[in-house]
Amino acid sequence: MLKNSATHYGAVARFLHWSVFLLFVYQYLSANIMTRLARDKLALGFTQSDYYDWHKSIGLLLLGLALLRWLWRKLTPLPEWAPTLSAAERAISHRNETLLYGCMFLLPISGYLFVMAGGFGVKLFGLHDLANPVGKHELLATLARVVHIVVGYAAVVVIAWHVGLGLKHHLFDRDRFLNRMLPFRRQ
Ligand code: HEM
Ligand code: HEM
What we know:
This protein is mainly alpha-helical. The chain has one domain: Fumarate Reductase Cytochrome B subunit (Up-down Bundle), CATH 1.20.950. Helices cover 63% and strands 4% of the residues. Strand 1 (42-43) and strand 2 (46-47) form a beta hairpin. Helix 1 runs antiparallel to helix 2 (48-75), helix 2 crosses helix 3 (87-117) and helix 3 (87-117) packs antiparallel against helix 4. 16% of the residues are buried.
């Protein structure tokens, strides 16, 4: 089923959830490689500039996926809460999901503003230079960079809470909580 049912997330929500997750993992790995690699060195056969190009390009792809995901969530009904979640866990998860969406939007937007206002630009997948509608602006570049790095690491805490709650229910309470979102699980 493409749409969510009353008890489980549908194929579209699952596909978007796990593709965003995998691309987020790539973003953290590439960010740490590109900011540490010397210009004339290679890591796994790629230069620092390759890693920057791909970090920026995948970041913009993530912005598109976040937008699709948010629209899908607004346009189709969500499943009901898992019956095993307490009232407090529901309230915290609701807040947490808002924060997760905040991170999914703020990270690519701040990254984009940083590289455009800083005059670095984006070479999409190493192939095509994007136009710069922002123009050089030092203060904006500094602010956007701070937001990008702070939100980047704050997101780890928000994601850790989200994953922790899921694992606690699935593994300790044994209520099959993750099946609501895991791919290839029958409802
Ligand atoms: C969801 C998408 C993104 C995530 C999760 C992400 C994550 C990160 C993280 C964690 C860092 C910090 C690395 C460090 O200093 O240790 C970083 C740095 C960076 N990101 Fe992103 N990023 C995303 C999107 C983007 C986009 C769309 C762009 C540009 C178009 C971008 C450009 C950069 C640049 C240039 C840096 C280096 C900043 C510096 O000089 O310290 N990022 N990113
Ligand atoms: C980048 C990392 C992650 C982000 C940004 C994220 C974000 C979200 C969001 C926003 C939702 C609400 C449904 C929606 O709007 O799509 C959700 C649901 C869910 N996520 Fe994640 N997630 C991440 C990683 C994970 C991981 C690693 C797991 C498993 C260990 C997981 C398990 C779940 C489960 C089970 C649900 C359904 C929760 C419920 O039914 O109440 N997520 N996730």
